[in-house]
Amino acid sequence: MPPHDADVLDLASGHEQVVFCNDAATGLRAIVAIHSTALGPALGGTRFYPYASTADAVVDVLNLSRGMSYKAALAGLDLGGGKAVIIGDPATLKSEALLRAYGRFVQSLGGRYFTACDVGTFSEDMDDVARECDFVTGRTVAHGGAGDSSVLTAFGVFQGMRAAAERVWGEPTVAGRTVGIAGVGKVGRHLARHLVEDGATVVVTDVSAAAVARVREELPDVREVASADELVASGIDVYAPCALGGALTDEVVETLTATVVCGAANNQLAHPGVEKALEERGILYAPDYCVNAGGLIQVADELEGFSFERAQQRASGIFETTRKVFELAAAESVPPAVAADRLAERRMQEVGRLRGIWLPS
């Protein structure tokens, strides 16, 4: 069901700035949403996706940018939250000219928003954006960047999963457990490797047969099932949604066999209230923006002059952050998703700049 105008306006009411970017010559239709700069300039990736409507794109960019504010705050970064979406099929629409046009729009924001990779965009694309823009991270190694941010995203999710395993089973490991991954593209593939190395049995599914084939070629013991519906109903201990958002619907929660949910996808809860349904079923949910912050940590480190070792050390802190979320949830008798929000909001309020919004010096 398409969103109503009132719903979109309600979502946007908490945002500092929403900018529509159009360039007829290249076919660019983009939206940049800056949710908060209370902690510093907004940082978030650019998603290139064939949305069914502009309204759908607006809802997605508003939700994603809000999530980035909370993710940066919980990760301890002095950054705010933003996100951008480019409307269209990247396989047919993406071009150097379009990306450079997009870079000029980002440049016009004067540094209030830094962009990076997301679904449908890659480090090579950021190199093209950077030809017209100073506020780009997630670039290729050849251009002084960190390269693929999915490496540390997966590492961070694995750290969060270890914390969840400790909470449920007493030990920070998934050895001997069965983990189901829905989506084995950029992040899910790296996550599968961490899990196999830790001693887990891994079951995967993806709409792309090529993505599954690549994982199984690298990790022959990984099993495949036909669909996400089949995966959640199978005998898994941990469910890792690693595709697009909204994976945790009422129907999924009802059929889910896992005891832990911990994955890389953004905005996993299909609607408010799902977090309570998970808790009522005795399923421990590791909040997505808490555990998937490794990629943000990686591209943020690039702004200082990238060091993989330093970024990985910072991303390893996701284990302790996830622990704190679970401890607060228990202490205040709330679901972990609520506890994570409270921790992030406290930091934004306590550390946030008095002037409210960030402006270039």
From TrEMBL:
SUPFAM superfamilies: Aminoacid dehydrogenase-like, N-terminal domain (SSF53223), NAD(P)-binding Rossmann-fold domains (SSF51735). Keywords: NAD, Oxidoreductase. Pfam families: ELFV_dehydrog (PF00208), ELFV_dehydrog_N (PF02812). Its EC number is 1.4.1.-. One of its GO terms (molecular function) is oxidoreductase activity. The keyword Translocase does not apply. Residues 147-356 form the Glutamate/phenylalanine/leucine/valine/L-tryptophan dehydrogenase C-terminal domain. It comes from the Bacteria. Belongs to the Glu/Leu/Phe/Val dehydrogenases family. This is Glu/Leu/Phe/Val dehydrogenase. It comes from Nocardioides taihuensis. The lineage of its organism: Bacteria, Bacillati, Actinomycetota, Actinomycetes, Propionibacteriales.
